[in-house]
Amino acid sequence: MIAVGGSFGAITVTYGLPTWVPFLMSTVVFAGGAQFLAVGLIAAGNPIAGVLAGLLLNARHLPFGLAVSGTIGPRLRNKLIGSHLMTDEVVAFTLRETDPVRRRRTYWLIGITLFTSWNAGTALGVLLGGATGDPGTLGLDAAFPAGLIALIMPSLRDRDTRLVALSGAAIAVLLTPIVPAGLPILCALLGLLVLFIPRRKRARRQGLGADPARIAGGPGTRPVETEEASC
Amino acid sequence: MLIAAILALAVGTYTMRLSGVLLRDRLELSDSLQRLLPMAACALLAALAATATLTEDGGFAGMARPAGVAVGAVLAWRRAPFVVVVVAAAASAALLRLAGIS
Description:
The complex is a heterodimer of chains A (231) and B (102).
Chain A: H1 2-14, H2 20-28, H3 32-43, H4 47-58, H5 61-72, H6 76-84, H7 88-96, H8 100-131, H9 140-156, H10 159-175, H11 183-187, H12 199-206, H13 212-217
Helix pairs in contact in A: 1-2, 1-3, 1-8, 1-9, 2-8, 3-4, 5-7, 7-8
Chain B: H1 2-22, H2 31-54, E1 55-56, E2 59-60, H3 64-77, H4 82-98
Antiparallel strand pairs in B: 1-2
C-alpha cells in the first residue's frame, strides 16, 4: 500500500500538477483507483471527465457499504468516520472474518493502517518524484500504466471481467485520436455490452474449459465476490 | 477548478460510502447491478492503462513505453509484487531509451 501510494505521489508530481494535489486527494478521496484515474484525466486537461470517471469507479462503495454496515459500529459517529476508511481491501479482509467482534476489530484496524500507509506513501512518492528530472529518462511514464495493470490484475482473472476490461480498453485506444481527451476513458464503459452477447455462443467458443453451472446461471445469479473487486 | 474537481470527487465518494452504510435496510440493489459495478470500475482503469501506454497527445507514444509496460504486465500476471512490476516496467523503458529506441 505504501508502494502504491508512493507511485501515486510520484506520478502526480511528474504530470506537472501542484504538490498539494496528491496530499489533498489521498486524505479526502482515499480511493486508489479513482485517484489515479482522476489525476490522469485532470492532467490530460479534462477535470470534469476526471470527476465523473472517478465517481463512477467509486460507485462500487455503495454495495460495499451495504455489506459492512452492521460491522462498523452502532453509533452514528462510528458510521461517519468508519465510512471514510472503506476500501476494497478493508471490505475483503472484513468479510473474511465470521465472528462479529473480530470483524469489527479487523475493519477498524485494517482501515486505519491502510489510511496511514496510503498517505505516508503519497508523501514519499511526492518527495522522490520531485527529485527526479525528466520522467522519460527514468521510464516513469511506463511505471504508471504498469502499476494500474498490477492493481486490476486480480479482477482480470475473472473471465467476464477480463472480457469487459479488454474490450473497454480497445474502444478507448481506438477513440483517442478522434474524440477530446477524457472521453475515450468514459467510452470504455461500452465494453460492458459484451456481457449481452448471448451466453451460449460464448460458451461454445470457450470450449471444454467452461463451467456449465456458471453458464446456465447467466448474469446476476453469481454473488459479488469482494476479493475479486480490487480495482 | 482543480480544487473544485478534487472536492467534488471527495464529497461524491464519501456520500456513496456513507449511504451504503446508513441505508442498509432501506436500499435494495439488484444482483446484476452489484455485479456490474466492479466490472465497470475495471473497464475504466483498463482503459486508462491502455491509453496511457499507447498514446500521447492523441498519437502513438513510441516503442519504449509499451515495451516497458508489457514487461510489467507479464510480471503482474505471474503475481510479482507491486513494487517489482512498477520498477521493472520503468527500468525496461529507460534501458530501451538508453539503447536509442524511443
